[in-house]
Amino acid sequence: MFLKTFKPRNSSLRWKRKILILQKFNYFNKFYINLKNNSGRSRNSSILLKSKSNIKNFKYFFYDDKRTWSTLLGVIIGLKLNNINNLIGLVKFSNGSLSTIKVANGLSIGNYVKSTYFPLKLYKISLLGFRVFLKLLKQNMIFFDLGKYGNKNKYIKSSGTFSQVLQINKELNLILIKLPSGKKKYITFDYLCTLGRNSNIFKKFLTIGKSGTNRNKGKNVIVRGVAMNPVDHPHGGRTKTNKPEVSPWGWVTKHSH
């Protein structure tokens, strides 16, 4: 994986930056499913999501986010970037089954990954990318993709982010971690995490070059309500006051805590 720059043959390529992977993704079509793209509209063609538009070759991509169905040892045989710019690896387990998981930074084709619920001292090979419980970690270790067993990941999911273990309290079954935002938080031992740092650390250097790149991904431009006319939005026509902010249909968009 590396960051590619382009020759400025036109204005859209002058500042464009793109991430490239040297190896293609194997068994590419096995984890895609064709579904109808409604472009953010209902059956009556009314707008439900203003930020959605039509997208070419619309497909859903599936990958194992929980990593709890198998504890077998697997090897990475392929890599690919998904739509949210996370590095996805194709893993072949010891029983011959295939799966797709989110890869930790530093892993490449040929590395081993595993979901283990036993003490880490039993394994002398590289533990980077292993899925373990928080109670198995030691102080100052880093991890990402934090979530409860059987549920989706809740914390530390963005590209290049990681969290660190600050303090372990075995009497109360609590662990103090430092989130990427700098906030410190107590978490129970029944959470799962992936060892290492999240992949694709070059995402912050990306430049799409032109708005057509996002339009091809199905992202539509969002116009501010205060820039519209009163017939188009409640905020339009210089009518915005101290009233709560609402959506184009008059729903309150902010809630007090």
From TrEMBL:
Boundaries of every Large ribosomal subunit protein uL2 C-terminal domain copy: 126-252
Q: Name one GO molecular function term.
A: RNA binding
This protein's GO CC annotations: mitochondrial large ribosomal subunit
Question: Does the keyword section mention Ribosomal protein?
Answer: yes
| The UniProt record lists the keyword Transport | no
Q: Which UniProt keywords apply?
A: Mitochondrion, Ribonucleoprotein, Ribosomal protein
What InterPro entries has UniProt attached to this entry? NA-bd_OB-fold, Rib_uL2_dom2, Ribosomal_uL2, Ribosomal_uL2_C, Ribosomal_uL2_dom3, Translation_prot_SH3-like_sf
Alphabetically, which GO biological process terms does the record hold?
mitochondrial translation
Leader sequence residues: none
Positions of region (Disordered): 232-257
Superkingdom is: Eukaryota
Give the record's family classification.
Answer: Belongs to the universal ribosomal protein uL2 family.
What PANTHER family does the entry give? LARGE RIBOSOMAL SUBUNIT PROTEIN UL2M, RIBOSOMAL PROTEIN L2
This chain belongs to the protein called: Ribosomal protein L2
